[in-house]
């Protein structure tokens, strides 16, 4: 029965105390508003009263009077609130509002006083009871709740004496704590952290250096291949452009010959006709002497372009990026045929050497005598390198001979054509 009465009393008192607390806060705000200067919006400082009974800070009034200082006659001070004029002889001549200054001083002292701790669960209720069971401060409402039913309570003074003794025991316990072991463990952890971070930093630097070098290698290989492809463009243009230009000129000459034929076809004057006929015959001779190029002569140019496939690079590993070969090295139009056979011979020799190496490797593993075959493998490698160099020199020599022979043959054909044309 007593508990029900306390609960009912709690329900009745809590809203009232809450409203009282809110009303007190509102009253303080209203009081502060009345004690605030309307010019600087701060608490009055050395307030001076005008004839209209409005008060302002002395510094604020001096600021208003600053504008009329240079005038020949002193203008009355107009109240910033009601605009009523007040004669003056400077801000110091105005009456001090002693009562307002006293109220402001008392309010300032009250405002800076420490606020009483209040309960977070019950708004505005002071923490004035100590629960000895939970060892915590509570308010009067908390003491009547189910959470603290059957607990022991005490006044703040008694709790202070008991907790002070407990504080001394706790202080001695803190002082005797294993601080040395903790410091040692802390130093060990910090040292381990430092070493781990240094290791991670070294790994990060290695990764950065590795990928920077890899990117640089890829860029160099890319530029090398693109440069070689630009050279290949020049080779293709060198192979096709002369014949294309020559045949285009021949077609233009044919059009001019047809236009000439149309122009003198209806001429009846013998002399004029014979002159035009002579010119027409000369143009026809030029057309007849224009030889069509052999398109098969340029079949080796097509495979140079078609055989280049970037998909073959997909099987390469990152560290083998530098092993990507350029599509064509030092290729030229005249040397196309000779260059086409050299890679086949080199590839054949490479396959034979790999097969021999595999057979030797199998035999060595079976006999468990790998050291005895190392000189043999080194000799085979040396012979393979020498064979490769020999084939490259042979291809280069063949290219030079083929180029000279083609130029010589072309010069003979040109001389023969000119000879027969002269006596035709």
From TrEMBL:
PANTHER family linked to this entry: BONUS, ISOFORM C-RELATED, TRANSCRIPTION INTERMEDIARY FACTOR 1-BETA
Source organism superkingdom: Eukaryota
Any Pfam family matching the protein: zf-B_box
Keyword field: Metal-binding, Zinc, Zinc-finger
MF term (GO), any: zinc ion binding
InterPro entries linked: TRIM45/56/19-like, Znf-RING_euk, Znf_B-box, Znf_RING, Znf_RING/FYVE/PHD, Znf_RING_CS
Occurrences of domain B box-type (ranges): 114-156
Entry protein name: E3 ubiquitin-protein ligase TRIM13
SUPFAM superfamilies cross-referenced by the UniProt entry: B-box zinc-binding domain, RING/U-box
Ranges where the RING-type domain occurs: 37-83
Lineage: Eukaryota, Metazoa, Chordata, Craniata, Vertebrata
GO biological process, one term: protein monoubiquitination
